[in-house]
Amino acid sequence: MSFRITGLSAEPFRHLYGLSEQDLAAHGAIRRIADACPGYPDRIELRDARPGESLLLVNYQHQTANTPYRSSHAIFVLEGAEQTFDRTDEIPDVLARRLLSLRGFSEKGLLVHADVVDGKDLRQAIPTFFEKPDVSYIHVHNAKQGCYAARIDRA
After folding, report:
1. How far apart are CA 137 and CA 140, in angstroms?
2. What is the distance between the alpha carbons of residues 27 and 11, in angstroms, rounded to a whole number?
3. Per residue in 122-149, pLDDT tens?
4. CA–CA separation, 80 vs 59, rounded Å?
5. pLDDT 10s digits, 7-40
6. How many CA atoms lie less than 13 Å away from 128 in the CB half-sphere?
7. DSSP collapsed to 3 states, the chain
8. For 39, left (φ over 0), alpha (ψ -120 to 50), or beta?
9. Residue 82: count of CB within 10 angstroms of its CB
C-alpha cells in the first residue's frame, strides 16, 4: 500500500524567521541552537537539525478539526526552512530513528485507531491503519515528548 508523508508548510512560520528574542517571545516562540544530532527534529524538512543550526520552538495546532481531539503542542521548525518534505513511500530518518505514536483520524477528525511503534517499523504499521476504512489520515507524534512530527495519507 502506497503512502505519502508530508511535513509542514513554511508559510505559518516565515514571519518568525530572523526575529529578535524579544519579538519571538511576543509570539510565544523561543530560538534554540542545535547542539547535538539527532535531537532537534524539524517539522518542515523532516530532518534532524545539525549542530549549530537555528530552530524555533513554537506551539502548533496540528489537529484543527472542531472535535474534542483538536490539539496543539510544541514543535521545532528549522529557522529559514522552505522545502516541505513531501514524498511517497519514503520514511525520513527523523521518523525512522524515534519511538512514534500513530494516531489514525476519520474524515471528521475523530480518533479511530492508535498505536505506538518503533520508527524502524513504521513502514509495516502504516497499512494496518489504512486497512481500516474509517481512517482518513494518520498523525505521527514523537512518543516520548508527545509532539507532532508529520502527517501520513494514502498515496
Report:
1. 10
2. 15
3. 999 999 999 999 999 999 999 998 899 9
4. 17
5. 999 999 999 999 999 999 999 999 999 999 999 9
6. 12
7. CCEEEECCCCHHHHHHCCCCHHHHHHCCCEEEECCCCCCCEECCCCCECCCCCEEEEEEEEEECCCCCCCEEEEEEEECCCCCCCEEECCCCHHHHCCEEEEEEECCCCCEEEEEEEEHHHHHHHHHHHHCCCCCCEEEEEECCCCCEEEEEEEC
8. left
9. 12
Which residue do the cell numbers 544530532 mark?
Answer: 37
Residue 125 in grid coordinates: 504499521
Give the dihedral of Cα atoms 116, 67, 65, 123; nearest 10 deg: 20
